[in-house]
Amino acid sequence: MTETTTPSTATPSDIKTSDELPDVLARICARTRLEVEHRSTLVSLKEITARAQDVKEAPRGFCRALKEKSADRSVGLIAELKKASPSAGILQENYNPAAIAQAYEQAGAACLSVLTESSCFHGSNEDLQAARAATSLPVLRKDFIIDPWQVYESRTIGADCILLIVGILSDEELQELVDHAKGLEMDVLLEVHDEEELNRALAIDAFLIGINNRNLRTLITDIETTVVLTPLVPPDRIIVSESGIKTHAEVTRLTDIGVTGFLVGESLLRQPDPGQAARVLLGRA
């Protein structure tokens, strides 16, 4: 009989109270936990761990790709793929992850980010696999990762890096998930929005700090968030600005204050040609 291991039994309210999380985020976290609990009865933690450890291809080096862009004084664009978002709705009716990924690579992106969350972003694990197979770029799995089972699953589907949202995880959960990822040689992008979350992230041994310009509680986006928090990040960390970046001028402004990476999706995917939009953002067109 296959051994089953049920992930953490913490409820979404153990992560944040309902007053602290907007309904959409609370629903995603709750749904994600239920999905993980169900899927772990089909493939146990022990089994998914073994599968992850058996993956033969080494991670492509997400952090390394951004460091190389920084060394070349180039923009480290993490070009995102997603069919939809809760705030914007459907972004690409004829969503083709492989084709979009190839266009991003040709435009000069350093890395890819792929949404795999299904309920609000219409994503899937297959989207990540298709994008990664179509390019040589390292890939971030962008999802609501709250359990070790998901970390090991991320490796089995080819993720080179995972996103951890500091605001929905306790310090203990963050450290545990980072440790599991490191054991698989995957990079970790710790996402923060304010100084308190940043201080928590800096206490973790992870090099990538993502500053989300979107407040997940109000859904208001303001790139001044990156401007305010960047000086508080030690120089040995790599800063990634996320959300709300639309122009090359904004990229230049944030690069000048020490930002290395830019995670951009919506402004690119709203265009008929996301690859050309990426070129414009990078100042190549």
From TrEMBL:
Gene3D superfamilies: Aldolase class I (3.20.20.70). It is an enzyme of class 4 (lyase). Pathway: Amino-acid biosynthesis; L-tryptophan biosynthesis; L-tryptophan from chorismate: step 4/5. GO terms for molecular function: indole-3-glycerol-phosphate synthase activity. Its EC number is 4.1.1.48. Belongs to the TrpC family. This is Indole-3-glycerol phosphate synthase. It comes from Acetobacter thailandicus. The gene is trpC.
